[in-house]
Amino acid sequence: MKREASVERKTKETTIKVQWVIDGEGSYEISTGIPFFDHMLHLFAKHGFFDLSLDAKGDTDVDYHHTVEDIGITMGKALKEALTSLEGIKRYGSAIIPMDEALCVFAVDMGGRPNLVWRADLQGKIGVFDTEVVKEFFKGFVNEAKITLHVNLLYGENLHHKVEAIFKAFGKALKEAVTKDEKLKGALSTKGML
C-alpha cells in the first residue's frame, strides 16, 4: 500500500494544499510565497526522500507567521493521514547534521503523543524572513502529526546555516522513523499499539 496523503486547509488567513508521498524519491514542487521557506522545504523533501507538493497562499503582506504555522499544521495532518498504520515502522529516528559551522541534533518519536522540545536560538531575519516563525512551523506540525520532536541546535553563527541544518536533520530523522522494518510485527511498543 502506497503511503501518501493529500490535505487542504483553508482559513481566512491562508489556503494550503499538501500532497505528500512518504516513500518517494525526494522530488518536490513547493510554492509558499516565501522563497527562503520554499528552500527549507526543498531541503526537507530531498534529504528525507519524500515526494512533496505544496501550494500555499497566505497573508504574507501582514507577516509570514500565519502561513508558516499553517503549513506546519497541514503537513502534520498529511503525515498522520499517510501513515494509516504505524505497525512495522522503526518509530524512532535521529540525525546529527552539520551545515558549515552550525550543528543540529534532531530526534523523532512517532509514539502518538505531541511534544516539541525546542533548543534552538533563532533570532533575527534572513532577508525578510523572521527566523522565530520556524518554531511555530514545528509546533503546528507536532500537534497535528501527534509525534514528538527534539530539536537541539548545538551551535552556529550564520542564521541561514542554522535553519538549514534543522530542516536537513528533520528530513533525515523523520525518514528513519517512518521506515518499515521487516523484523517488526505490529507496533514497536509494549502496549501493542502506538
Overview of this protein structure:
The protein is α+β, with helices and mostly antiparallel strands. The protein has a single domain (4-178), classed as 2-Layer Sandwich (Ribosomal Protein S5, domain 2). It is 34% helix and 31% strand. The chain has 4 helices and 10 strands, in the order βββαβαβββββαβα. It has helices at residues 35-48, 65-82, 133-145, 159-178; strands at residues 4-10, 14-21, 28-31, 51-58, 92-99, 102-109, 115-119, 125-126, 129-130, 148-155. The strands form 3 sheets. Strands 1-2-4-3 form a 4-stranded mixed beta sheet, covered by helices on one side. Strand 1 (4-10) and strand 2 form a beta hairpin. The model has no long low-confidence stretch (mean pLDDT 94).
Percent range of helical residues:
25-40%
- Tally of helical segments: 4
Taking the sheet with the most strands, its summary is: 4 strands, mixed
> In what order do the strands lie side by side in the largest sheet?
1-2-4-3
Report the CATH architecture: 2-Layer Sandwich
- N- to C-terminal separation? 19 Å
| CATH third-tier fold name | Ribosomal Protein S5, domain 2
Structural class: alpha+beta
The total strand number stands at 10
Give, in order, the helices and strands. Answer: EEEHEHEEEEEHEH
Fourth-tier CATH superfamily name: Imidazole glycerol phosphate dehydratase, domain 1
Shape: globular
CATH hierarchy class name: Alpha Beta
Labels describing this entry:
single chain, 194 residues, alpha+beta, Ribosomal Protein S5, domain 2, four-stranded mixed sheet, 4 helices, 10 strands, 34% helix
